[in-house]
Amino acid sequence: MEGPLGRHRALYKGPAAPPWKETYRRRCLERLKSSRERLLHRYRQAGPGPGALLVPEVMEREWRCLQAERGAPGERGQCELQQMPQDPDELAVLDEIQQELILQEQLVIEEYERSLQFDEECLNAILDGLDASNRIICPVCRKNHLTVRSHSVVCQCGLDVPAQDMTEEKLRSLLENTITEHSHRCLHNPEFTVTSGMEEEASLLMTCLVCDFWMILL
C-alpha cells in the first residue's frame, strides 16, 4: 500500500504540481552546474563517502532566493532571511528535486573519476613504456616507441617533429607535466596530434575540444 509520502509525491507528478517547482528545479540545476569546480574541490578534500556534497547548500540557497522574490518588494534580494518549507506537500516536491540533483552531482564526480583514471593510464602508458634503452611510448598512437634524434623526434606511426637539443628525459618530463597541468583544469581527455602548415615545420600539439586548452609541445 502506498504510504502518505508516496501519495504526496503522486499529487505533484501531474497538473497539480506547484507553480514554483520548475523554476526552482531549473535554478538548482544551473547553480549546481556553475558550481562544478567548487564541488570537485570539496570532493578532493572530503574524498569518497555517502551523502551529497553541495546539493543541500544549493537547494537551501535557491529556495530562499525564490521565496524572497515572491515576497514583499522590500524583502526581495534578502535571500538569507527565508527558511526552508515545513509543509509536507512542499517537502515531497523538494525531495523529488533533491534526488535529481544528487544524481547530477554523482554524475559529475563519476566523470571526474574517469578522467583521473584516463590521465593515470595515459601517464603510465608513457612512463611504463620506458625500457632498458629509456624509450618512450608515442602519445599519438600509444603503441610504438618514440625515437629521439639529434634534431627531431620520430615514430613509426608517422610522427616526425623537429626538436632541437631534445633528450628522452626532457621529452618524458614535458609529456608528464603537460598532461598533469591539463588534468588540473579539465575533466575531459586531451588529444595529441601532429600538425603542419604549407610552409611551417611539423609540431606536436596537445589539445582539448572541451576546455579549449592547447599547447605546442615540440
UniProtKB/TrEMBL annotation:
Pfam families: RPA_interact_C (PF14768), RPA_interact_M (PF14767), RPA_interact_N (PF14766). Keywords: Metal-binding, Nucleus, Zinc, Zinc-finger. It comes from the Eukaryota. Residues 55-126 form the RPA-interacting protein central domain. Residues 137-215 form the RPA-interacting protein C-terminal domain. One of its GO terms (biological process) is protein import into nucleus. Its main location: nucleus. GO terms for cellular component: PML body. Residues 7-46 form the RPA-interacting protein N-terminal domain. GO terms for molecular function: zinc ion binding. It is found in: Nucleus. This is RPA-interacting protein C-terminal domain-containing protein. It comes from Bambusicola thoracicus.
